[in-house]
Amino acid sequence: MRRNKRFPSRHPEKRIALSLAKLETQLRPVFLAALAGDAAAYRLFLDAISARLRGYLRQMLARAGRSEASEAEDVLQETLLALHLSRHTYDPASPVTAWAHAIARYKLVDHLRRSGRHAGNLPIDDEAYQLAAPESGGSDARLDLERAMQALPERTRRLIDRVKLQGASVAEAANAAGMTETAAKVAIHRGLQAMAKFLSKRGKRPA
Amino acid sequence: MQTDDLISLMTASHQKVDTGGLRRATWLAALAALAVTAGLVLVTLGARHDFASAWMTLPVLAKAALGASVAVVALGVFQSSLRPGLKRGHLLWLAAVPLALVVGWALATLAQAPAGQWSALVFGRYWLACLIAVPLYAICPFVALLVLARRGAPVDGRLTGFSAGIASAGLATVAYSLHCPDDAVPFLASWYPLAMAAVAGFGALVFPRFVRW
């Protein structure tokens, strides 16, 4: 690994490693715009980072002897929830890809520990995520998030269904539910919080 | 639920985010906890009797400066340990600078004193009181930082706890310097760092249980 770092040009990884730097230069301004309140930029960021993290998680899970895509998708969703709820922990002067990968790694280790697999053989080095290629084709997750949804209050669930399934804007969904747009945003936010909490409290139940 | 749906939901409820809040909250919490702790010291133990004349003397100022400088370094590390991907743990070594200065000063003091006085210089009158009081007065900042840590995303709970422990003990040192009647530098260089290490170790043990997210 050290040798790769010292003589990168002799190794094919260079292209991918560079593409992480490229991703960083592309994503940082997009994420900063998102933090300033730009929802479209946020969507762009989430699409790009989830492809990257999907590749990373699939590779790491495969190394831990688990190659089912649905499991990677579960951890990805948990990671995205955590990332969303931890936006305020991002330091604008630091690389956004390192921030996102640190969250993914934390959730991955947590997932492996919870499902009875120790994470001792996971590479801790930073190169691990540099080598992961992005994967854009999402696969079906297992039912984890669905179960988390069931634990939400009826009103929140209906709001979420409207936005998620019927593609309604928050304003429309809020209107239909008889609440203000801000209240609807807060309700969805609380719902996401509750779902994240549900997922991290599953205990040792086999995933 | 598809990942795309989840992304839609997150985008829909997205709002402007304040990334500086955690930093401000850390400093505010530290200042508030310091004020409360200083108040507690004054109420429970009272200021040292000669406070009016002693507070400008070098040993008293050194005590407060030691606590404050260590706390500032540790609070900086604590704050960044709540942000994933920032690897600032090594900056904690900066806290060793004031400690090393004090230890060097203490050794110089001992070297100049006759060996018969060494024990008096190190143990002073109330070494045990110092050793007990600093961890006790560290409770208030410790709890404040623990609550704060739960609002962040610490990926290394032990580092967060360790730095929170050092910071709490540093703040407690500043507060306790209002009361502590022992002014010998060897005393300062022995018991305060020991108390800080104890609280830091406790933090590293306790935090990981409470800051998982």
From TrEMBL, chain A:
<dbReference type="GO" id="GO:0003677">
    <property type="term" value="F:DNA binding"/>
</dbReference>
<dbReference type="Pfam" id="PF08281">
    <property type="entry name" value="Sigma70_r4_2"/>
</dbReference>
<comment type="similarity">
    <text>Belongs to the sigma-70 factor family. ECF subfamily.</text>
</comment>
<dbReference type="InterPro" id="IPR013325">
    <property type="entry name" value="RNA_pol_sigma_r2"/>
</dbReference>
<dbReference type="InterPro" id="IPR014284">
    <property type="entry name" value="RNA_pol_sigma-70_dom"/>
</dbReference>
<keyword id="KW-0731">Sigma factor</keyword>
<keyword id="KW-0238">DNA-binding</keyword>
<dbReference type="GO" id="GO:0006352">
    <property type="term" value="P:DNA-templated transcription initiation"/>
</dbReference>
<protein>
    <submittedName>
        <fullName>RNA polymerase subunit sigma</fullName>
    </submittedName>
</protein>
<dbReference type="GO" id="GO:0016987">
    <property type="term" value="F:sigma factor activity"/>
</dbReference>
<feature type="domain" description="RNA polymerase sigma factor 70 region 4 type 2">
    <location>
        <begin position="143"/>
        <end position="195"/>
    </location>
</feature>
<dbReference type="InterPro" id="IPR039425">
    <property type="entry name" value="RNA_pol_sigma-70-like"/>
</dbReference>
<dbReference type="InterPro" id="IPR036388">
    <property type="entry name" value="WH-like_DNA-bd_sf"/>
</dbReference>
<dbReference type="Pfam" id="PF04542">
    <property type="entry name" value="Sigma70_r2"/>
</dbReference>
<dbReference type="InterPro" id="IPR007627">
    <property type="entry name" value="RNA_pol_sigma70_r2"/>
</dbReference>
<dbReference type="InterPro" id="IPR013324">
    <property type="entry name" value="RNA_pol_sigma_r3/r4-like"/>
</dbReference>
<keyword id="KW-0805">Transcription regulation</keyword>
<dbReference type="InterPro" id="IPR013249">
    <property type="entry name" value="RNA_pol_sigma70_r4_t2"/>
</dbReference>
<keyword id="KW-0804">Transcription</keyword>
<feature type="domain" description="RNA polymerase sigma-70 region 2">
    <location>
        <begin position="52"/>
        <end position="117"/>
    </location>
</feature>
From TrEMBL, chain B:
<dbReference type="InterPro" id="IPR009495">
    <property type="entry name" value="NrsF"/>
</dbReference>
<keyword id="KW-1133">Transmembrane helix</keyword>
<protein>
    <submittedName>
        <fullName>DUF1109 family protein</fullName>
    </submittedName>
</protein>
<keyword id="KW-0812">Transmembrane</keyword>
<feature type="transmembrane region" description="Helical">
    <location>
        <begin position="53"/>
        <end position="78"/>
    </location>
</feature>
<keyword id="KW-0472">Membrane</keyword>
<feature type="transmembrane region" description="Helical">
    <location>
        <begin position="159"/>
        <end position="179"/>
    </location>
</feature>
<feature type="transmembrane region" description="Helical">
    <location>
        <begin position="191"/>
        <end position="211"/>
    </location>
</feature>
<feature type="transmembrane region" description="Helical">
    <location>
        <begin position="90"/>
        <end position="114"/>
    </location>
</feature>
<dbReference type="Pfam" id="PF06532">
    <property type="entry name" value="NrsF"/>
</dbReference>
<feature type="transmembrane region" description="Helical">
    <location>
        <begin position="25"/>
        <end position="47"/>
    </location>
</feature>
<feature type="transmembrane region" description="Helical">
    <location>
        <begin position="126"/>
        <end position="147"/>
    </location>
</feature>
